[in-house]
Fold this sequence. Notes:
Layout: H1 42-48, E1 63-68, H2 71-81, E2 85-86, H3 87-90, H4 95-98, H5 106-118, H6 139-151, E3 154-159, E4 163-167, E5 188-192, H7 195-212, E6 217-222, H8 236-256, E7 266-268, H9 271-278, H10 292-306, H11 313-333, H12 338-369, H13 382-403
Parallel strand pairs: 1-2, 1-3, 3-6, 6-7
Antiparallel strand pairs: 4-5
Amino acid sequence: MSDDVLDEPLDPPADGRPSASWHRGDVVNTYPTQSDYFDRTFLRDHILKGWMPDEPFLTRGTKITAFGSCFAANITRHLDNLGYDLSARRDPGIHISRIADGLVNTASILGQFEWALENKKQPGNLWHGFKAEGFGFDEDIRLRTRALFQASEFFIITLGLSEVWYDEITGGTFWRAVPKEVFDPARHKFRVMSMEETRRDIARIHALIREHVPAARILFTVSPIPLAATFRPVSCVSANAVSKAILRAALDEFLRSKPEELNRTLFYFPSLEIVQQGFIDAMRPDNRHPQNYVLDVVMKTFEAVYCVGEGTLDDAAELWMMFRALNIEHIAARKPSISQHEHLTAASRIENAGFEAREKAKARETAFNRPAAAVKPAVPDKQALRDQRKEERKALRRARREEG
């Protein structure tokens, strides 16, 4: 190994920003560094940027219709508590009010719009509530749903998952899973919706609203609540990552196709990103539902962006910083058991060995990639430089252990 390798930094720049070696275009938004999480502009600069209207526009007189996955219930409850005009209050007896947070896939959401607005016949025996009770095609409920849609000024549609059960004969999709008493293995099948199918459903929902309620504003969001279980032969963690990725990518592709509407009459609210990126450990012990204070931050941010007179992003940022600190305190307060402590000790030893191996590998890689003409003459006190770098690494490891 050439000795001049010791004169080169082995790590990237501390701020993690890209170098100026490449063309960076007219727009460059960098991924946040660790220090950015202590900045009051974090929500604005690293999560909300590019997704906000020029100013809030929702008032307590705005007729709001919100439904979709289970996260829709959090939005509905919060705005209802503030006195906003929610569809669940205007007509609590229609399907989208009774199971506002149970229409978890795009096909089931689209089905409500097609049925209500265009009287499109839907495949039978696929609509069920939380206790597997059947929901029918009552004409009075359809007309009431149609009237509610047509009177709506703001739609909030929450997308939940991409895994669906469907009827192979009719092609219809269940709202949720298949009730035991009606399950027929010859016709009821499971699949993962593709990104293109999902994008088409979103586009169709948008088109129906534009045709029948042209003045309405539309907001889409993706629920941060993961799958409770997967019916795929893979881990639920990996299946959930795919499920959310399909929804998020399909929605983003659709939104990019509507630049003339984006942030004017068509919106995306990044609740998924606030929960996943705004906190270190956002979930309750079930690891599926966000802590109440996490939901408070999400909704306070929603208020600041969309609701007239309900607070500012500075207010939301203050709340987020306070609760993120609380989140960190909760994590630190968790005392490891004796066995966990033994694992942590062993992990520390492995980490130290891995650190040394990586540093040596980076040094060898740098030496290998250096052009021969750039190699400097040997430095007489090379052993002293090696010893100095070795001591620096030891000090760095000690600091990391103390921090941990």
